Amino acid sequence: MLEVRDLTKRFGGQTVVDHVTFSVRPGEIAGYLGPNGSGKSTTVKMMTGLLHPSQGHVLLDGRNIRDDSARFKQRLGYVPEEPNLYGYLTGLEYLQLAGGLRGLPEDRVTQKANELLELLSLRDARWVPISAYSKGMKQRVLIAAALLHDPDVLIFDEAHSGLDIANSLLFRHLLRTLAARGKMILYISHILELVEKVCEHIVVIYRGRIVADDSVSRLRDLMHLPNLEEIFTQLVEQQDMESRAQEIASVIAR
Amino acid sequence: MKQVSPLRLLFKLFQGRFFESDDVSPGGGFQTNINQMLGFLVTSGFVVSYLSIPVVSSIVNRHRGADLNWILRGLQLFSPTYTFAVIGFAAFFEWDMLFPNRRDFLVLAPFPIRVRDLLAAQLAALAKFLGLLIAAVNLFPIVFTVLMSFSALYRGRGLRLVLAEIAATMGVSAFAFIGVAALQGVLLNVTSPRLFRRISPYVQMCGMSLMILSLLTYPIYSLLLRPAAVRHHLWLWLFPPVWFTGLYDLFFPNAHGLFASLGAYSLKMLAAATALFALTWSIGFRRHYRRTLEAEDSRPRAHSGRTPAFLARSPEERAIFQFSGKTLARSRKHQLFLATYLSVGISLALNFGTAVRAGKLLISDDGARAVPFLVAFFAISGFRAVFQFPAELPANWLFRITESRWAEIARRVTRKRVLISGLAPVLLLLAPAEFAVWGGWRVPLHVAFQLAAGALLIEVIFWTFDKVPFTCSYFPGRTNLSILFALYFYGFSYYSFNLADLEAAIEKHFWYGALFFVGAAVLLTLFWRHRREPSSTRFDAYEPAIQTLDLN
Hints:
heterodimer, A: alpha/beta, Rossmann fold, 6-stranded mixed sheet, 4-stranded antiparallel sheet, B: mainly alpha, two-stranded antiparallel ribbon, 19 helices, 2 strands, 74% helix, globular
């Protein structure tokens, strides 16, 4: 089980993530939601070891990930929000690099990478430099790189961003299949409909603090609201969007 | 309400691009970068002028008559050469910024902007950039000339000297810059956007290297100036700084016929370059604008072969080895930095490896021996420097997320990469020259000796290097240039000349050679087998409070 315990991050005097605690069980897809600037990405950076927490721990199967970060990284697959890749490498070369850095033998990496690229409809572009890829293609390379070493823990930060309809559907099925195989999946997205469809468990962060941590159905029952969109709106004190849209229209007409 | 002119906005946008390159000062804003770059150029001009004062005084005191005139002519050549090299280097360095690129066109295309406004704004930005460069490079050399004009040597001719200096340096500056821009204009017209993109790095590399060579080989050709003028050598008509030196003769009454012709030729060539620039840019701008938007570099890359097992044993080693090779082969900025280092090495090697005797350029027996060591030193230290520049800063999260305390692996791979891509090619390229100069049994001995010495130098230079090449998460920008210069000067001279002496001694005494090779083998075995405590790879100089990984 992946556990986030009392995780806190302070930058200077400002607390960006404030005593965040939640867990993701094997076979579970947990949705991690929050408005922009609420602390989602900072939490993820601490979970992936890219940022040291000011306080608190991340545990995998009861062990602090910092005690053996190399072992944790071998079990982690991560798709960042922005498709930052080495543009001068081709799709296949990037996957070979990612596999090699994770210690996978070259032949196995090449075989798996080719199969994944084929399944993700990137076979024809595998020798083309990534700089020429569209955003969706880059995203698929990142997904393949995150899955290449068959990790136990998967963190997807807006992973479907830029994907076309077919690949978005494929990704949704992939999430369910991976969860069925016992992977622990943390899924960050702003598309509430998608989250509602694939995630059994929702964690909502707002201004650095967890404001909800439960299943979607229980949240619906507890808050007497029909869907995740309304639950989210109520939890994070979103302003009346309709009146704000009216204001924008007025400003541009001036 | 006052309306802002689109032309003015575009001018601001384009002028900023010359100084907001990450290669100049990462993270710096426009004002920081412009101040740093111009400050560097002004300081260089000051140092060059300051160092010239005792040289000129000593020459004036020691020589008389025709000898003095020719030496002064040689010194006069330095100012246009320095200006030509610096401005030309800057123009090639900013090659991508001279013409609006694909990103500019993509960003600006949706806006209601006329193509002629784009061209006018770019030309205005180029003019400002050129003006600032000329002022920064020539400020102190002109001040120095003004001071010189008060000396007894130029009594009654002081004003002519100052005017000639201004004409020569301004003329050669404009020629260097406009010449590079015209070259770009020609290439834009005769090549497709895709081909232009492919050949640009090579043009840039060759151009920057030629500029360094033209400056640093000055001691050689300044000595050849007099015999070349006597024999009317062709090279005088091929090297622009010499033409512009001829402008001095146009300002003084007792002109040298050949140099006066060269001075007139310089004005014709400046006019020709300007005309070519105007023609190619006016024809090519709209065409390139349209074609650039349609072009996309989706050319498949060649399949790379397997890395031999002896070069990289584990998957991690193989991954880093291949990554470093591909970055070297495909990253333009790294190639440019490496080419700059190599050009400095080759220029110094030409200076030390040759001698001018009786008006002829000959190979120096003593100096030629130091050439391979000198070039190898600059190649190896060049690799050390370029490895510290991140390839794509936001993408290095991959290394952080997979990092598993393989600093030692990275160190091993780095050494092998420098050996394979740095030292070996340098020695291979110099091998024909070795055959030509030394011939026979000496060549294999020399190559083996240079290889062993180079391998030891790699160990020394990379002793503290515990990073994966090209993944450092900051740009090296805190280097103390004066300390670095002193270290390089001491390093290359000590390494090159002492090892050249040792090589000569080994040729004569078998036991010296045996002792060296056994010692080198033992040391290299110890270095290569030495395993340090597994530690985390260094990505940062220090642990920052906020890691800017740009992940969101």
